[in-house]
Amino acid sequence: MSASVPPLHDLSTIDIDTFESLSAEVDTSLSVHLPAPAAPAVPTLETSAVSTLETSDVPTVETSTVPTLETPAVPTVETPADPTPATLTRTVSSNSAVDSAVEIPVAEDVIRTCVTPRKVQRVREALQKEVNRHRCAVNLLPFFFTKEEIMNSNTDGSHGKQCLDSNKLNSLKVLVFSKFPAESATEKDKLWAFIKTKINARCRAIKYANTTRTQ
Q1: From 164's CA, which of 24, 117, 145, 206 has a CA 20 to 30 Å away?
Q2: Are 127 and 136 within 8 A, CB to CB?
Q3: CATH number of domain containing 107
């Protein structure tokens, strides 16, 4: 390269073309003799150095440990059976006598043995309307006794009053217990004693009403 460059004292006389030719030769020499820069090393990641995530290391939730919400049992409501005539509740009066019971239609031949033929139809209608023992007995009184007899009498002749005819009272009793039968003779006696108190109360009420009306 030094042989091709002219001496220093000749540089002042070099023309432009010669200078450009020399510059090209210098650039070519430099490109031939200078080593090419080495490419930087790229770090490689070895697969052996990569840590793997084991599936066994992943925490799992067991279904057996998850609390379950139990649904409480719904209580069932039992519907009571419909009452039958034999199980109807009876109303107990203040003196512990049963005042209502199962109703049974009264046969016409029973009615005919208790009242006169012309009263049979009205007595039958009266029996069909009643649903209570003592009310049935009280409402049957006019079919057996006159108003004067009811005003001036009672069932046992006490308190200075006359006693209602026992045969008629017995016929009335037959009709009442034919419609509302008692379970036993003892119960029947208790019921009849209670009914007689209601008959006596009706006798007093009719007498009082009649006395007030005449004053």
Answers
A1: 117
A2: yes
A3: 1.10.10.2590
